[in-house]
Amino acid sequence: MARPALFLPVLAAPVIGFVLAASGIGQAHAQNTVIQAENVRFDYAQVLRVTPVYQTLRATSVEEQCESEAKSDSRISRALGAVKDALSREEKEQQASPNCKPVTVEREFRRPIAYDVDYVYKGAKFRSRLPEDPGNRLRIRVSVTPVVQPPRSR
Question: Under a CB-based contact definition with an 8 Å cutoff, are residues 60 and 105 in contact?
Fold first, then answer.
């Protein structure tokens, strides 16, 4: 009777050979295939400086600008003007003042869209543009890969 095939995840060559031998499957199925695990780890870098990068937006709108009547300095005239304004407020809202005219007003708005972050890791300084302010420390991905030189020609 044939045994059912056993499928195991490939982790590393020495481990696979041990698992296959222990499970009773013959060495014919064991392969010495080495899958290179990525040499990556995570660490933290100290943030030195964070500089916001701004986007400037311009918006225009039409507003009504009214010129005020001649102002007098006496207290009595100011008090009379306040009473007059209170009594005639409804009339002013219904009819437009002859001293008002539409004016185009342009405004600028600035908003941060990114952050330039200067940080140091193991004595080396780096700069990255990030979508958010990282705070005092930045989680980084550290990867090490050997440089393989082509064989020398003789």
Answer: yes
Residue 43: which H helix or E strand, with range? strand 40-66
In single-letter form, the type of residue at position 152 comes to R
Which pair of structure tokens corresponds to residue 113?
Answer: 């869209």
- pLDDT tens digits for range 83-134: 677 666 655 555 555 678 888 889 999 999 999 999 999 999 999 999 999 9
Whole-number Å distance between alpha carbons of 54 and 50: 13
Coil, helix or strand at residue 133: coil
* Cβ neighbourhood burial of 39 (10 Å; 0-12, 13-18, 19+): exposed
Count of Cβ atoms closer than 10 Å to residue 104 Cβ: 8
Residue among 25, 69, 47, 51 nearest 139 (CA): 47
